[in-house]
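name: query_chain
kind: protein
chains: 1
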Amino acid sequence: MKPKLDCVLVVEGTQDASLISSLYDVCIVTTNGYECPKAEIDFLNRASRLYPIVILTDSDEAGESIRVKLSSINNTQHVRVDPSKCDKRNKHGVAECDIYEIKRVLSQFSHQKTQNFSSNIELNDLANIGLDKAKREYVATKLSLGKCNSKTFIKRVNLLGITLDNIKDVLREYDNR
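structure:
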């Protein structure tokens, strides 16, 4: 079982997210380079009320730009990897880091007190209430969850303690539009 990190982690790309998720159970927001859509910023603002928002970006122009863009979010913490320990394929970003360097910089988030929510929504729960893609996107927008596929949606609602009843309430709005 992977150790759980008690934070929301912001990384630049899918390779960064893939490396981190192979090591830890953590909610990850991927910015895709310089971009960080408003929906993701809304989610980070909401999540920051419960968890630290940990920004782990590359030490390049894009990474620094993201750090600046997200600096207005409360409860953010910036962690940086040692670029000398991140060198593969002539690249020096997070995705190229030695796993021990990743573990070193994120270890401070693995033993904090966690929020205990009763929410434990699973994929079959979403199917049982008829949450298709259009409805999921509507609910994600209304609840400030950012852009989510089903797996990310489940992770984020459970992280924030959103219940199935909360989702059903939003779906009633959707049906009454």
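note: The chain has two domains: 4-109, 123-175.
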